[in-house]
Amino acid sequence: MSQHAVSNQAWLLASRPEGEPVKENFRLVEQPVPEIKEGEMLLRTVWLSLDPYMRGRMDDGKSYAPPAELDQPMVGGTVCQVESSKHSDFKAGDWVLAQSGWQTYAVSDGEGVAKLGELAHPSWALGILGMPGFTAYMGLMDIGQPKKGETLVVAAATGPVGATVGQLGKLNGCRVVGVAGGEEKCRYAIEKLGFSACINHHSDDFADQLAAACPDGIDIYYENVGGKVFDAVFPLLNTAARVPVCGLVSGYSSRDLPSGPDRTPLIMAGILKRRIRMQGFIIFQDYGDRYPEFLKAMTPLVEQEKVHYREHVIEGLENAPQAFFDMLNGKNFGKTVVKVS
After folding, report:
1. Closest Cα partner for 307 from 292, 326, 294?
2. What is the DSSP letter of 257?
3. Cα(119)–Cα(127) distance, rounded to whole angstroms?
4. How far apart are the C-alpha atoms of 162 and 200, rounded to whole Å?
5. CB 175 within 8 A of CB 150
6. pTM for this entry
7. What sequence ranges are listed for the domain Enoyl reductase (ER) (predicted)?
8. How many helices (H) and strands (E) does the chain have?
9. What is the distance in angstroms between the CA of the first residue and the CA of the last residue of the chain?
């Protein structure tokens, strides 16, 4: 038996971050593989998803979801295989989608676990056919309401949410302008994803380049970054523009208010005068019952390669913290997943 067959490797949340998370906020432990009781099953983690929302769960402030618990495995979505089962609905070998976190094995009573059919790419259930794809689809289609000929701007344009938003916008007749960190990502957005333009937010004249790429203004801005990207977008928003807000990754580790004058009155006046609709949403809280609708729409688009998807694969659970930090800092290219076993 290999050592992984007899031990459960887990990254525990050791402490809450003060600003940017660091390696010391996590602790790697080896534990015995847990025993299962009647009505339970043992899950072996094959794929672990790393997502920006996890940064918020590391804090203990009031939020839409309870904070991750100290000295417990860090939270996260997983694709697992059932190793052994005393649960009537699951058998050994089943592929499942779970929330078993940063560990190689987990015991489950079946709550919150969904069976996956025969998938050519099981890890895609954590990306284009999972939470990020669902977030992209509902935010754009329900709140953004794209119409032919409109201009759609999306930040983090090559990430799992942004890339999907842009491609869906294009399929719905929008002119799509992406924002990404670096020339390579921008080339990919134009050449592979079919965006009309993509602006590198590291450019000194980023705001000017964005304005030049949006001569007719912006009708939909899909917000997942905030910060200087929002600052450049806001003056360009047209009357009756829609702004779905699914994330603000640029500020997740900020502890203080940004310096400079308070621009809230200016922003509020813009929202009023231009009748801008900004709406935040939490995907499973707001749209959980519409997941089947999303799968029905997205699965054929992926199978027919009308929507492209890129993964950033990290080998080995031991590398999860560094991969997480890199993702928060935009060093990933595509959806970050860890191949655990």
Report:
1. 294
2. P
3. 13
4. 14
5. yes
6. 0.87
7. 24-338
8. 11, 15
9. 15
Could you report the average pLDDT of every consecutive run of 10 residues in the chain (341 residues)?
66 94 96 94 97 91 86 96 96 95 96 87 94 96 98 94 97 98 96 97 97 98 92 97 88 70 91 97 91 93 94 96 93 93 85
**CB of 204 closer than 8 Å to CB of 210:** no
Nearby residues of 326 by Cβ (< 8 Å), 6 or more positions away: 332, 336
Task: Give the DSSP per-residue string, 16-30.
Answer: --SSS--GGGEEEEE
Q: 3-class SS at 217?
A: coil
**Cα 112 to Cα 110: distance, rounded to the nearest angstrom:** 6
Q: Which residues contact 311 (CB under 8 A, 6 or more apart)?
A: 123, 124, 127, 334, 335, 336, 337
Q: What is the predicted pLDDT for the residue at 1?
A: 34
By DSSP bridging, strand 114-115 and strand 197-200 are: unpaired
Helix locations, the chain, DSSP H: 3-6, 53-57, 131-138, 160-171, 183-191, 206-213, 227-233, 264-273, 283-287, 291-303, 320-328
